[in-house]
Amino acid sequence: MPSILFYVVLTAQNPIDNARINGSFQIDAQFYQPDEGIGITDSVIAGRKVGINGYGNIIYSQGNFSGGIRYEAYLGPIAGFDAQHEGNGIANLWASYQTSMIEITAGNFYEQFGNGLILRAYEEWALGYDNSLNGMRIVFRPISGLTIKGVYGTQRFYWQKFERNNRGIVRGLDAEFDLNELISPLQSSGTRVQLGASAVSKYQRDADPIFNLPENVGAFAGRLNITKGKFSLMTEYSHKINDPSILNNFIYKDGHAVLSSLSYSERGFGVILQLKRVDNMYYKSDRGTTSNALDISFIPPINRTHSYSLTGKYPYATQPNGEMGMQFQLNYRLPRGSKLGGQYGTNIAINFSQVNDIKRNPINDTTEINQDGTLGYKSGFFDMSDHIFFRDFNVEIDKRFSTKWKAVIQYMNLYYDIATIEGKTGYEPVKANIALADITWRMTSRKSIRLELQSLFTSQDKGDWAAAMLEYTIAPRWFFTISDQYNYGNPDKDSQNHYYTASLGYTREATRLALTFGRQAEGVVCVGGVCRVVPASSGIMFTLTTNF
Amino acid sequence: MKPNLILLIILITSLRIVAQQESVQSDIPHVMIRNLNGQQFNTADITNDGKPMILSFWAIWCKPCLKELDAFNEHYLEWQEETGVRIFAVSIDDSRSTARVAPYVNGKGWEFDVLLDANSDFKRAMNVNLIPHTLLLDGNGKIVSQHTSYFEGAEFEIYEKIKKIAGLN
Fold first, then answer.
1. Taking Cα atoms as reference points, which of A191, A452, A396 lies closest to residue B107?
2. CATH number of the domain enclosing B66
3. Predicted ipTM of the assembly
4. Residues of A in contact with B25 (CB under 8 A)
5. Interchain CB contact of A278 with B (< 8 Å)
6. Partner B contacted by A2 (CB < 8 A)
7. Do the domain assignments include residue B76?
8. Is there a domain that residue B3 lies in?
9. What is the domain count for chain B?
10. Residue A330 Cα distances to A435, B105, B111, angstroms
11. What's the domain range around B141?
């Protein structure tokens, strides 16, 4: 009898009843073959004929508890990934308990304070970027409208385990106030106001034989968001105390970063202006690293992320040592039935962005600018240099002509300081004009053909390019693509190459399989603020992804 | 007699538990993201009074995502009238482009709910690998179907499934 009662209790608490497991897997594989035409010889491949990156991620959750594990294997890493990726093992392991008031996580986690200006831990699989924190995190919501977060830990550095003094320790606190929630008379107000403040500190031992380096480096940020009707203002200011590192040539200057945006939007019309200033704002948990890892801060580039191969050929990457930039974007929808809008309406987007270097003035008559062991330079808040890093003006028109036909056309004018952005010292800045058309013909309700034609004109770097792509899709499962990028304007006649590919893919539910044969041109892939240089390659690429 | 009574209690208790689980348990984890005004939004609030839902992960720089959402928007009113479906479009734009999402969405005149997942916390919790990624949920928040990638015309199959979830065919 007691045993039967026990069974009742057990049934009531059976963990299977409300447990949930979900997960995802991905494998990216590349098989390389020599291709003399684009300079890939046996010695370039050096025996590494296959690169495979893969992961599996499983999350278990039951009631207020959840836990996860992530396995990764880069054997060997595919071309363009840092060689330090090579390896396999458990990348993330974590457990978390969550109620409406408190959330505690132990293990590997990701986090962002505000816009990430002084702390952002995130992961971008396509770039091989992961600066997850390994430690603990508490999120506390004592009353409605107030969120307090506290984190501490060490950052992921490829497969290198944290050991005492092999890299720094990161600690951070963030508080966010939603004034409309906190102050009851404001609850129904049409003006929404949020305030936030954060502080981050890193500790790394000073073992430098020459300089006396700060072992604890603090950074602080404050932010304000106001939304009133159709207007929205977002601004964040961050300040970092002196943080000499290999990336700022060991100067003792404080750093700062400001990001502001003001937007207005209504149905069919949206406009936004963004401004940014960054001064000496590299903030990494190891002052000796130059690799694309261990960033504590995230300084977002503010320019459009382009989605086509030639408009995306010269992507901008933030210069944390100093830059001043702006972006303006206008979206307008010509209404249906108007003279220019046509039967289906027409979308127009105009975008402009420019980023310059900051102006640096000597700290005194005898010290050179940026001399190590000094305060480096002086730069007032509005001191902007004439040196342009990047400028992009683009217009895009998106129009549907009938139920069967639609098209996107785009024009882009670009200025790209390749010497600064890609480190190709001595190269002239690239000035380019790019035009493209993307035409879709919906043959039946499920079958369609898409044609992309692009042209890039420039006298610098590798000269002119033309690209064409033809895609046939059968929704929702199949796609077939053939494409070619032709570098017909390369000043080096022997390098006027075709980069042709053929792809096919199959998708069913959340499983996707894609296979590409052909050549890949050298390029830069950027997601968020991080970029990865992809070398030219030739062969077969395969991607399998699924989740449940 | 006595054991039978106990068995009955067991049966009733188990049935009650199963019934509760089915009506309450959702597949959506609780993650704090933001709405278009920048205010915190608990993903537990992704609900629709027992009617079907579409949850779609997208970003401003993802062309197929924009095409899919444009296609949804074109049919949204009609779909809503027939099935009561509600669409949540979760942008994974990071701070590089989060500020541009609201003017973009308004400029496009999209009618559905748009949420901001600037550090991909919700995307990770849902184990989404690539975007566009679209999940179809029943009225209890249970995942009925999910799909990665978008090709022209895929919205018709999605809508067929939504009708099925709504019990229309």
1. A396
2. 3.40.30.10
3. 0.92
4. 18, 20
5. no
6. no
7. yes
8. no
9. 1
10. 19, 12, 19
11. 27-165
